[in-house]
Amino acid sequence: MFTNKFIITYLIIICTHGVLSSNVYFAIFFLDNSLYGSSSLGNQVSIINQFVLNKPNNDDTMSLTILSQGKTSFNTSFHPMVINDYGNFYTNLATIMSQEHAIGNISYFQLTSDVAAKSPFYNTKIYTQKPIIVYFIDSYLNRIEDTRKILNMINKFYDTEIRVLSIIFDEKKTSAATFLTKNKDFVNINMDSKETVKWLYKQYEIP
């Protein structure tokens, strides 16, 4: 028979290393498949892939919405994809990689507007209390002011801590990225995908 002391110690270990160590993450990624952004599309996809594969804990739960703007837009009907089916995840990434790029610059305005209309952030079981919205920026963005207005509306309407982040690939995009995030600290200049993924996860921890 197990002693009470053994049982209590065992339960403490389970709680400490099991249930309490798991987290729930949600993120929306906007990929830049403009004429110039298409040159970094492979890097953008790689960052999302590494983000999924390098969860802080194996027991963590993750849901994503992946959107891409090229000649046309790609979305999964704006339904969050729970990452327990890697086949579906990689099918979506492959579809994005084969998407025809825009012939010039892009705008994230319409996709962001659709996110505002079709993503019930009040459902914190899926979208969590601290979701992140990540914009890849590797080109000039059309209608960036209007896009920022939609983000302001989302933050005002929902009682959650939605953090807007940008990932860029050279310093020339810093100004646009900072305008979109409203904070230079929320902009990452990608030099190494693994470090960018670490930076993304840190954003969930910052109050």
Write the layout of secondary structure elements.
Layout (H helix, E strand, L loop, with lengths): L3 H14 L6 E9 L8 H13 L7 E9 L3 E2 L6 E2 L3 H12 L8 E2 L1 H10 L5 H4 L4 E6 L3 E2 L1 H14 L5 E6 L5 H8 L5 E3 L3 H13 L2
Parallel strand pairs: 1-2, 1-6, 5-7, 6-8, 8-9
Antiparallel strand pairs: 2-3, 2-4
Question: How would you describe this protein?
Answer:
The chain has helices spanning 4-17, 41-53, 86-97, 109-118, 124-127, 144-157, 174-181, 193-205, and strands spanning 24-32, 61-69, 73-74, 81-82, 106-107, 132-137, 141-142, 163-168, 187-189. The longest helix has 14 residues, at 4-17. The radius of gyration is 19 Å and the shape is globular. Strands 1, 2, 3, 4, 6, 8 and 9 form a 7-stranded mixed beta sheet that branches. The chain has a two-stranded parallel ribbon with strand order 5-7. It contains 8 helices and 9 strands. Helix 2 (41-53) packs across helix 8 (193-205). Strand 8 (163-168), helix 7 (174-181) and strand 9 form a beta-alpha-beta unit. The protein has a single domain (24-205), classed as 3-Layer(aba) Sandwich (Rossmann fold), CATH 3.40.50. 43% of the residues lie in helices and 20% in strands. The model is unreliable at 4-20 (pLDDT under 50). It is an alpha/beta fold and 207 residues long. It comes from Strongyloides papillosus. This is VWFA domain-containing protein. The chain crosses the membrane at residues 6-31. Keywords: Membrane, Transmembrane, Transmembrane helix.
